[in-house]
């Protein structure tokens, strides 16, 4: 099943609980854009609490949205549009913050051998590179 493959991928690559990846995978190919937790639970053969926890995690990463229609008692889960999902990964401000944070560690390794400082210096350089480049990447993506 595709959802199981996505679950395995997200578990092995990003440390997500397999159910979070399975939920994401299922929503990517589902006919119904908004599904109640109970229906997702039955389809994925998982407990309601496992699906709820997975939806909560994916919601934190802006990968899914939960909403409730007036008069309904149950949340419905749907995919967040990909462009909105990407915003969190392509937010240059996050990488600017990383660079500032990592720079605060430089005095702690100032007297150390260069090899000891290398990892921190590389992390700073990567964060600064991403902070500079990501706005252009997102602008190019939006142009597509």
Brief summary of the model shown:
With 144 residues, the protein is mostly helical. The protein is built from seven helices and three strands, in the order H-H-E-H-H-E-E-H-H-H. 67% of the residues lie in helices and 7% in strands.
| Total beta strands | 3
Topology order in helix (H) and strand (E) letters: HHEHHEEHHH
Overall shape: it is elongated
Structural class per helix/strand content?
A: mainly alpha
Stretches where pLDDT is under 50 for at least 5 consecutive residues are none
Oligomer: single chain
Placed side by side, the strands forming the largest sheet appear as 1-3-2
**How much helix, percentage-wise, in residues?**
55-70%
Helix tally?
A: 7
- What average pLDDT do the residues reach? 89
Report, as a whole number of angstroms, the end-to-end distance. 31 Å
Query: What is the percentage of strand-forming residues?
Result: 5-15%
Largest sheet: 3 strands, antiparallel
Specify Rg, calculated over alpha carbons: 20 Å
């Amino acid at each position: 099943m595709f959802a199981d493959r996505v679950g395995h991928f997200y578990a092995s690559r990003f440390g997500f609980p397999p159910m979070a990846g399975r939920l994401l995978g299922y929503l990517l190919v589902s006919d119904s854009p908004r599904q109640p937790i109970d229906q997702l639970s039955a389809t994925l053969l998982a407990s309601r609490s496992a699906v709820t926890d997975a939806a909560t995690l994916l919601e934190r990463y802006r990968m899914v949205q939960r909403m409730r229609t007036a008069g309904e008692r149950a949340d419905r889960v749907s995919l967040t549009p990909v462009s909105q999902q990407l915003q969190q990964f392509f937010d240059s401000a996050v990488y600017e913050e990383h660079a500032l944070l990592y720079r605060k560690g430089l005095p702690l390794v100032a007297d150390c051998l260069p090899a000891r400082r290398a990892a921190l210096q590389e992390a700073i350089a990567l964060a600064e590179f991403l902070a500079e480049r990501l706005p252009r990447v997102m602008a190019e993506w939006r142009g597509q």
